[in-house]
Amino acid sequence: MNYSESSLPAQGVAAAASQNRLASIDILRGLALFGVLMVNLITEFRVSIFQQFLPQPAEAQLLQRAVLGFVHEALELKAFALFSFLFGVGLAMQFERLSPTGRAYYWLTRRLLILLVLGLIHLLLIWNGDILTEYALAGLLVLPLLGARRSALAWTALALLALYLILPGLPLPLGWPDEQWLAQHIGRANAVYAAGSWWQVLQFGWSELPALLPLHVYIFPRTLALFVLGMLAWRSGLFADAAAQRGRLLLGGCLLGAAGVILTAAGQAGLLAGLAPVCLALACAALLVLAAGSAPVQRGLLPFAALGRMAFTNYILQSLIFGAIFFGYGLGQFGKLAPAPVFVLGVGVYALQLALSRIWLRHFRFGPIEWCWRTLMYGRRQPMQRAI
């Protein structure tokens, strides 16, 4: 039997329609997407992702150094950590909403398998920096935990974070390229990505996948841990009633922020340094949810909610836009631009998406790719246009 969103039981489902969404989650997702955009743009579309693993000459201009420093210190890893955490929150929300059907695991498995297919299309036909495939696989792995006790979720998250910290020191059969390979590959990347045809760019992107695999393997336990922490946060009621959780959110945000600052100051000296971005991302999440509980602040942040509700569509659009700007089948600017003008470009694209997302959602319930995802999940065309 086919289901649509509107045919599911009213208890916890119809009430979770778009007009009843928790704005703070959408706002956080919209803000996190800015960080994801900037990191991808500065470190992967502008230059080869492998360039950061070679010693780099210092930027001569203060402005260029400031942009790189901001992206590295404020956004890199932290934006992706927040995005992963929110994906876990979303899984827990959907599980709660679908539970009255008695088939929540079935529907979420379908949802994640469809995400896997869409992610593979993005990975193989648009850009090899895709995170959707990893998120779909991680989601399928944590799916059985959605019905677990909160204590089990907490211990699982801690175990996964511990694995993330020790994994680089384990003797895994995943060789990382040496400096000679990196230098040669970056030279080829500069030539192919800047001047190659669409087919040549795709083929070269596919050839990079084995070298990118170790990066995904080492970050995967952290992604799983953040999914589980997001599930735990939702189950703990931290998003459902921010006003009632004000004390917990404030205390948690301050403690996590302090831990993140201390671990960042420790640099690479300690084993726990890898937890700094996680602590800082979760601290930002707690404090922003707390701030969004204030009506004036929420009104000021609401424009980001529209972008957050269309995060899937906007993420794919960013790949298409930046591919057309930096790769040879478009304007061919790969390897040619300094960080500062690229940062300005990113701000402009993000601002445009912010405006277009608000306009789109005045007329439609979902972004186009979100609508496609839901339609494929339920096996029936979902209502798209808003009722007038």
UniProtKB/TrEMBL annotation:
Keyword list, A-Z: Membrane, Transmembrane, Transmembrane helix
Family annotation (InterPro entries): Bact_Transport_Assoc, DUF418
Ranges annotated as spanning the membrane: 31-54, 74-93, 105-125, 131-148, 155-174, 215-234, 246-265, 271-291, 312-331, 337-356
UniProt xrefs under Pfam families: DUF418
Domain DUF418: 235-379
PANTHER family in the record: INNER MEMBRANE PROTEIN
Protein name (database record): DUF418 domain-containing protein
Organism: Duganella fentianensis
Organism lineage string: Bacteria, Pseudomonadati, Pseudomonadota, Betaproteobacteria, Burkholderiales
